[in-house]
């Protein structure tokens, strides 16, 4: 793994830490609002705030090539598409309690990218 890839993974982990920490201050049974989070901390879980998407997403390419060399795509598949990728469960959460649970699992999935895969 290159140092550049490691840095983007660590930046993404920090992004998730900040989102999860903010969400913990919300009513656990309250409705999830990406805009509420964005208004409060200027970030949320959609692509325009994701460090992976900032680096790898190329909207001008065909759908199957847009996410390029994203480490999450390479290991778990595309966000919102692959069942192995946990992003969709987080995105579809109705309450903050559920969102935190799925975001924590998503963070663990991202952290696992730091582990070298043995052939």
Q: What's the arrangement of secondary structure elements?
A:
Blueprint: H1 3-24, H2 34-41, H3 51-56, H4 71-76, H5 87-91, H6 96-112
Describe the fold and architecture.
The chain is mainly alpha-helical and 119 residues long. The protein has one domain. It is 54% helix and 0% strand. It has six helices and no strands. Helix 1 packs antiparallel against helix 6. The protein is globular. The two termini are 14 Å apart. The mean pLDDT is 93.
Shape: globular
* Total separate domains: 1
Described by its quaternary structure, the protein is single chain
Report the helical percentage. Answer: 40-55%
Strand content: under 5%
Coarse structural class: mainly alpha
How far the N terminus sits from the C terminus, by CA atoms, comes to 14 Å
H/E element order: HHHHHH
- Tell how many strands the DSSP assignment holds: 0
Low-confidence regions? none
Brief summary of the model shown:
This protein is mainly alpha-helical. The protein is 54% helix and 0% strand.
């Amino acid at each position: 793994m290159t140092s550049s890839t490691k840095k983007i993974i660590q930046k993404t982990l920090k992004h998730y830490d900040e989102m999860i920490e903010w969400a913990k201050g919300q009513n656990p049974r309250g409705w999830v609002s990406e805009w509420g989070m964005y208004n409060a901390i200027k970030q949320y879980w959609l692509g325009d705030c994701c460090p992976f998407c900032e680096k790898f997403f190329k909207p001008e390419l065909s759908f199957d090539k847009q996410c390029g060399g994203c480490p999450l795509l390479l290991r778990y598949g595309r966000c919102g598409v692959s069942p192995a990728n946990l992003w969709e469960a987080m995105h579809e959460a109705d309450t903050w309690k559920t969102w935190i649970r799925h975001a924590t699992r998503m963070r663990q999935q991202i952290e696992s990218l730091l582990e070298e895969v043995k052939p």
